[in-house]
Structures are given as C-alpha cells and as structure tokens.
Amino acid sequence: MPKAINYLVLFVFSLLIVLYAALLTTPNGQSLNIHLDAPFWIFLQCVIAQWLTLKVYRVVKQGNSSITAHIAKVFFTSNLVFSTLVTSLVIALETAIGIQQVDSMHMVATLGMNALLHALVGAYSLAFELVTRLQRQQLVLAKKDKALLDSQVKTLQQHIDPHFLFNNLNVLSALIVKDPDEAEEYLAQFSDIYRYILEHKSKNLVPLSHELAFANHYMALINTRFNGAYTLNVTQGEETNTSEIIPCALQLAIENVVKHNAASNDNPLEITIDIQSDCIVIRNPLRLKEFKAPSSKIGLTHLNAQCQAIFNQPILVDESDSHFTLTLPLGV
Questions:
Q1: Phi and psi, residue 132, nearest 5°
Q2: From CA 217, how far away is CA 93, in angstroms rounded?
Q3: How far lies 35's CA from each of 21, 110, 314, 326, in Å?
Q4: How many angstroms separate the CA atoms of 110 and 114, rounded?
Q5: Is 0.85 surpassed by the pTM of this model?
Q6: Which pLDDT tens digit goes with each residue over 219-228?
Q7: Residue 8 has pLDDT above 70, yes or no
Q8: Residues 84-111 as b or e (16 or more Cβ within 10 Å = b)
Q9: How far is residue 110's CA from residue 88's CA, in Å, rounded to a whole number?
Q10: How far is 90 from 88, CA to CA, in rounded Å?
C-alpha cells in the first residue's frame, strides 16, 4: 500500500476515534465538544504505534517458532513498549503543564486507552505486513516456477533438434546415391525447414498458422522422399485463427506417422489434422510397417513433457485396430 494511502487511513481512523469519544462524553441535547487539535495528536500516536510495531516485527526474529507465536510476541512486546512510553510521556506533559489532574485512575485510564489504540493500529499494521509478505513469497515462487519451466522446455528442445537432424540426414544420404538432383532439391527444402526450427526453438509457443505452413513444407519434403505416398488434409475453423501451439509439434506428429506406417504412390496414406477450439487432432489409418526399427517413443515422450510443462495437460494417444489418433492441447 502506498504510504500516502496508509497515512490517510490512519488519519481517518483518528477522526473516528475523536468523534466517538466526543459522542460518549457529550451530554444529550448539547453540541459535540471536539478539540480541533485532537485528531492530530491521535494521528501522531497511530503513526508511532505503527512504526514501533513494524520495527519490533523486523528486529524480533521468528527462528524456530510458529508464525502465530512470532506475531503474538511482536504484538505484545510492541504494545507493552508503546503503552508504557506514551503513557509516561503524556502523564509527564500533563503534570508539567497542569492541564489535567493526575491520579492513579487517570494513569490507569490513559494506559488502557494507549494499549487499546496500539491493539487496533498494531493489528492493522501486522495484518497488512503479513499480506505483503505472502504476496512477495508468491511472486518469488512464480518466478522460480517460470524459470524451472523455461529450463525444462529448453532441455526438451535440445533433445528434439538432434533427433530431427539425424532422421533427415539419413534421408538425404540415401537420396545422394539414388538421385543427386533430387538430393539437391531436398537439401534446399530441408534448409528452409531447419531455418524455421532455429528461429522458433527458443519459443514456448508459436502461432498455429505458422506451424501449419511449416507442416505443409515438411510434407513436401516427405513426398520428395516417398514419391507422394503420404497426403495431408487439414480442417480448420475460423475461431482457431489466434491459437498457439508448441513449435515443431506437427512436424513431430507427421514424422511419427511416416516412421511407423507403410504407404505408396498407388495406395497413399492420408494424414488428417482437425483443428478444434482448444486442441488439434492428428489421425491416420494404421498400416504398420512389416519391418521397422524398434521404437524408443522418445519423440512423443518429449512432446508430452512439453505439453505438461506449458499447458499442464498431457497429449492424448488413442490407437485402435484401424487408426492412430494423437491429440495435442492448444493455447487460446
């Protein structure tokens, strides 16, 4: 809370105390008797009570005690110090000036009023201090969580990049022997795709429209390698134009389909992408390759870890006898 607002609250509180005291001491039918300087002196005592409470709060360490025990120690210590000092000062001033008859009843009443004043102001000050402390702790935790999330995502991205590079260099190596001209064209397409990866690898999310364009370029690469054996069909609603997705997620999903399913130019395999309001569904018929290398499932494992870290949602995998379906969350 800004200091100006805090002091305004204390001054309004002082005015209310003076008004309440005047209402109690003024006989019925008579006008209120309010000393104009009274709010100022009450306000001054409120400021001292607040300063003393927060000073004791910062000096007295919590140690191994509970927060309740620590606050109680701060409250009663500051109350005792404030009540004793202010009462002594007031009594001494009244005695010196002679404006008030000082006796034991007056001293007890003054001590009680100062203790009550500190109880109200001290409770308000400690409550505000605890709320501020809690907000600071939440902010620190939020920063730590964000730093941890960024670290996890970057670690996962570093695992995906070599995976993508390794697979495509194997394809390029085969094409160089088979058809050098086609290999050159493949290399140009691959360079464009890898440039996209380098430009977006440090981002947690990218616009879905960019990722779809990247997926289409990647499919062109796939069809160069497999002579049109795989096709891509995308259905998209207008409400998904502003959606975001993890970069290279579609490329990884398509790569997973091509890796496990056989297809040919005569009998192409259709990959469908259905974009919904909060997720994207990649689906393909199952045509498992007869001979394939054992799957480590590292791609989907990393993709799932990224979705958990960024969206707090897992990917959904559904494999039936006829189809494989992968559902990825979207940022909206």
A1: -65, -40
A2: 88
A3: 11, 18, 69, 78
A4: 6
A5: no
A6: 888 887 788 8
A7: yes
A8: eebbeebbeebeeeeeeeeeeeeeeebb
A9: 9
A10: 6
